């Protein structure tokens, strides 16, 4: 494992796109950490935007601010912003994205509290307690209640909820995760499940099929049978590893692998389950055929 500590990802891990780069196909762009942009000709959704990526020193000593110029450059447009949980590395840029694009912020009470602290108007935010169908144009999304993995020496980091708006800009420890949600996204042709933390609730995923799963790479270290259970329940064709980088390098700089994350083993484990792994570099793009369901 030490071979991979604080190393850059191998370019050979990057997957080829399953479909051509056509507007009618589903495009998935990876933003690093657990962040993605999903788009086609009908809709654009952003998941867990964290592109400002303060340095290690800034993260632990300073209030954390979104970088408006980076947001404008990397997320020029979206219809909705979906938040899996309200830790800083999942929500920091959400309010700035919504301010610039007019997008609707959708997430837990904690996520909306962060939006309020940043000055978003109430009509631009939607709280979900999970399990409800939310219409996003021709797409539908459901936040499936989940749990945060015990990713810090066997404990859940920054546990708890936010029932009042936190300071803005916040320090990293002031953003508690709140209700954790696994997003199930139906484009009408394809179904995507986003698991942004190192655990999940099996009963909440039961009965949900997914063509594509964006899966937190940290989870296989903390939950037994993590990949096998995801494949057994959701039956995906593709798994995209996410949340594998240290989060403190600039978005346009070479990333570093998070200690404890072994991507080659993760890829082989996915293959052993009969699923195609699709490793994406930060800012990488993949396309998926929407002319017929996978």
From TrEMBL:
SUPFAM superfamilies: Metallo-hydrolase/oxidoreductase (SSF56281). InterPro entries: Metallo-B-lactamas (IPR001279), RibonucZ/Hydroxyglut_hydro (IPR036866), UPF0173_UPF0282_UlaG_hydrolase (IPR050114). It comes from the Bacteria. Residues 32-243 form the Metallo-beta-lactamase domain. PANTHER family: UPF0173 METAL-DEPENDENT HYDROLASE MJ1163 (PTHR43546:SF3), UPF0173 METAL-DEPENDENT HYDROLASE MJ1163-RELATED (PTHR43546). This is Metallo-beta-lactamase domain-containing protein. It comes from Acinetobacter dispersus.
